[in-house]
Amino acid sequence: MAKKSKRSFSRPKPSRDLRKVYFIATEGEKTEAIYFDCFKGNPYRQNVIVRVLPTRKGRSSPTSVLNRLQEKIKKTQLKPGDELWLIVDVPEWEKSELQQVYQVCQKQRYFLGASNPSFELWLLLHQRNPRTPATVKECESELTRLLGKRYEKSNYDAQKLLAYVKEAIAHGKRLHTDEQEFCPQQVGTHVYRLVEKLIVKT
Known about the structure:
By secondary structure, this protein is α/β, with parallel strands linked by helices. The chain is built from 8 helices and 5 strands; from the N terminus they run E-H-E-H-E-H-E-H-H-H-H-E-H.
């Protein structure tokens, strides 16, 4: 009489490929990557993958950032729920170019996280009572004070800031007074919308 095979009741482990992916194309070469790379491990969400696509060879205009993102996804099998983000600064570029990029984002369902005057403002919001300078130079000076050493775009301690990431999100929301604007016309940053997703566990 043939023996009955034993049934296994163990559940297969979920595939890493099923995790939601955030593709983040940035205007800067290193500044944004240093920050977003912090979200690739504990204690942040474990059911997502963060892929940063930094600028290379000075190709940092909003149109170049958009093209880089589109080139990447041509070679990638996207899954439902994956998100595609552009992180850019406002004052460096013509409003007409930003408007055109935003229109493509709306059509293709990409997300735009713009900062005015720069990404450094988002970094500055990681404290209880931040100043919100209107120029890049002032933001960098404030970051030097906050970090306790000279701020360098390509070499700074992002982990030191992340203890106040929830405060940064709250400050970002407070500065975002016009929900209809596609990028901040005054001092402000929409980067909080991405970071809020990266830290909320689901």
